[in-house]
Design a protein that fits this description.
This protein is of the alpha+beta class. The chain has one domain: 3-Layer(aba) Sandwich (Glutaredoxin), CATH 3.40.30. Helices cover 37% and strands 26% of the residues. It has helices spanning 4-7, 24-40, 55-60, 87-95; strands at residues 14-19, 45-50, 68-73, 76-82. A four-stranded mixed β-sheet has the order 2-1-3-4, with helices on one face. α2 crosses α4 (87-95). It is globular and about 30 Å long.
Length: 98
């Protein structure tokens, strides 16, 4: 299994969705992320992190509300927002980091 630290060191941007299974807005993000993936292909990677199964990781990135979305590239945090976002908005954000 890949380590989070290794994944975010990618040359390609990595969109990280910190979510919880009990979170209604988080459930709304799932089809948005699928649409985003269909639109961008392999230009960026999209991963989801369950904060209840990865408490230390969520804490280290100070995730206080879900969904929290972050974009990393080469290990650097480039963008961060909380709340539901559209696929078009996320595609626009990611396109700045290709």
């Amino acid at each position: 299994m890949e380590k989070f630290e290794d994944i975010i060191k990618s040359e390609k941007p990595v969109l990280v969705d910190f979510f919880a299974t009990w979170c209604g807005p988080c459930k709304m993000m799932h089809p948005v992320l699928e649409e985003l993936h269909a639109n961008i292909g392999d230009k960026a990677r999209i991963i989801t992190i369950d904060i209840d199964k990865n408490e230390a990781l969520a804490s280290s990135y100070r995730v206080q509300s879900v969904p929290t979305l972050m974009v990393f590239r080469k290990g650097e945090l480039l963008w961060r927002e909380s709340g539901v976002r559209s696929a078009a908005e996320l595609e626009n954000v990611l396109s700045k980091f290709y």
